Amino acid sequence: MVLALLATIDGKTAPYSGVEGAPAVDKPKLEAYLRYAEGFAASVKFSIGDPEPLPFPGFYRLPVHLSMGETKQDKVYYLTADGKQILGGPVWDLQGNPFIESLAHVPTDGPSFGPANAKITLVVFSDLECPYCREFARTIRESLPQKYPNDVRVIFKDFPIASLHPWAEAAAEAAHCIGDGRPEAFWQFHDWIFAHQQEISGSNLREKTLTFAREHKLDEAKIATCLDTHATKAEVDSSLNEGRALEVQQTPTFFLNGRPVPGALPWASLDTLIQMELHRPSFIPAPKAK
Has this prediction a pTM greater than 0.90? Predict the structure, then answer.
C-alpha cells in the first residue's frame, strides 16, 4: 500500500532532530493521516520515531509504536527520500537479499542449538504458555535436528504475551534463571515446560521450577533468589523490544535467514522453506554473517 504524505504544512517544513539528510516529518500530520488511512481509533496511542537509514538508497525506515492499554504493536513504514510518499509494505532491492532489512535487526544472541556456522539461522520468538509455540517447539526440537543436524542453527528469543498468557513472562524469567550460562539446562527446561504446560499455573510456577532445578541437580537456592528478585526481567524485556522492532505480533514468529514467518508451521511447510533457502537462486546474495 502506498500513501501520499507531504512533509510540510502550508509550505513550512516541520523540523525534527534525527538522521542528518533524512526527510523532515511532520509527526502530528502523519499521525492524522495514518489514523484515517489505516482506520486507527482515537483510543490507539501513537509514538512516531525518526526516519532511519536503510541499507539501500531512496528510502528511510520509519517506526511507529502503537498501544492501547496493555496491548502494544510496532509497525514499520518506508518514507521516500523527498518525504512525499510513505509505503506500508516491504521495500526490496532487486540487487540484494530481499530480507536485508530484517537481517539487520534479527538478534544473533540467545540460547541456541545447532552449528554456529550453519547455512541457515532460525530465530524463533516464542511464548512458553502459548499452545501453538508448544507445537512448533516439538517440530524444531525433534524433526529439524534429525534431517538438518549441520545446516540449521536455532536461536530462541522470548516474546511472552502477557495479555493472553498470565504466567508466560514469569516462565521466561525462570528459563533464564536456569539457563543463563548453561545452554543445555535452558533447552531441558524449554522442553520440560512445554511438555508440562497444561499442569502449570501462575501460582505453582515457582514451585515447579524449583522442583525441576532439584531434579536436574542445579543450584536451587541461587535459582530461587533469581526468581524472587526478577533478576532476569531485563533480558526478557530486551527480547520483547527486539521482537517489537521486527513487528512480531503473534507467537510463534520465526525468522529463517531473515525471512519473517508468523505461526506454527507444520514440519512439511518448514522443510519446504529450508529447502528453498538451501537452494536460493545464485544471483540473490546470501545473508552476511554479523
Answer: no
Give the model's pLDDT for residue 17.
Answer: 38
Q: CB burial class (10 A; 0-12, 13-18, 19+) of residue 4? A: exposed
Q: Which residues pair with 123 in a beta bridge?
A: 155, 255
Positions of the chain with pLDDT lower than 50, given as ranges:
1-17
pLDDT in tens, 23-67: 888 999 989 888 888 888 888 999 999 999 887 788 899 999 999
Largest separation between any pair of C-alpha atoms in the chain: 70
Q: How far is CA 33 from CA 79, 117, 213, 242, in A?
A: 14, 45, 53, 27
Burial environment of residue 24 by CB neighbours within 10 A (0 to 12, 13 to 18, 19 or more) = middle
Q: Contact at 8 Å (CB) between 35 and 122?
A: no
User: Quick check: 84 and 93 in contact, CB under 8 A?
Assistant: no
Q: What is the C-alpha separation between 178 and 226, in angstroms, rounded?
A: 9
- DSSP H helices in 68-129: 100-105
Phi-psi region of 134 (alpha: psi -120 to 50; beta: other; left: phi over 0): alpha
